[in-house]
Amino acid sequence: MTQLHGHHVVSGSELRATFTDMPGPEGHPGWLRRRLLHGIVLVLLVGVIAAGIVGAIAVMNGTIRLPSAAITQTPATLCPTTVFDYTPNNKVSVNVFNATGRAGLAKSVADQLTARGYKVLGVDNTTTSYTGTAVVVSGSSGQAAAFNIQRNIAGTDYYQDQRSNASVDIILAPGFSTLVDAGLVDNTPGKLSCPREDQRIADNSKQPIVPTSK
């Protein structure tokens, strides 16, 4: 034992012996359990990150479709659900547009409607991607009148625009042939008809190209 001025001086051999006798972390109670738990947490974390990356790639590639995405792809119905009485013909004002390419058709149909008591505001030619019988267009205040027109022209498709008056536009499409016989017109209450997709030409338009009222 070495002393200096009455104080004990620790030698190198004593210091090494002291640290050699101290237990390492492996000998600490619970050390193995903590190491095991730490390893499990790391594995789970890596798994979650990997699953998130794979899932994100799958969604981007369209392999996985989220429920909300599927819902937004379903077209919502825009057809009015109101039940209308049959408005008398003489209370209905119309514009007649010819989109068939057949010369004189708008004037011919306008004359027939006039004979049935309708007020014809004007006739003109136009174009449309719609391939059914005809498109019937009105504002919200003209829906009852539009219902009347749909009963006189079978197989039409109704669309609503922003006009404030009760006038109705009739766009005669390539599928038009003739008016319903005056004696066979159904004048019982009913709803507007909006077939839409069944009568659309194969193009990228969301809806037929229809003119606004003059």
From TrEMBL:
Q: Where does the LytR/CpsA/Psr regulator C-terminal domain lie?
A: 92-176
Q: List membrane-spanning regions.
A: 36-59
Q: Look up keyword Endoplasmic reticulum and say if it applies.
A: no
Name of the molecule in the record: LytR family transcriptional regulator
Q: Name one Pfam family in it.
A: LytR_C
Regions of compositional bias (Polar residues) in chain numbering: 204-214
Q: Where is the composition biased (Basic and acidic residues)?
A: 194-203
Please tell me the species this chain comes from.
Arthrobacter terricola
> Segment Disordered: which positions?
192-214
Source species, domain of life: Bacteria
Q: What keywords does the record list, in alphabetical order?
A: Membrane, Transmembrane, Transmembrane helix
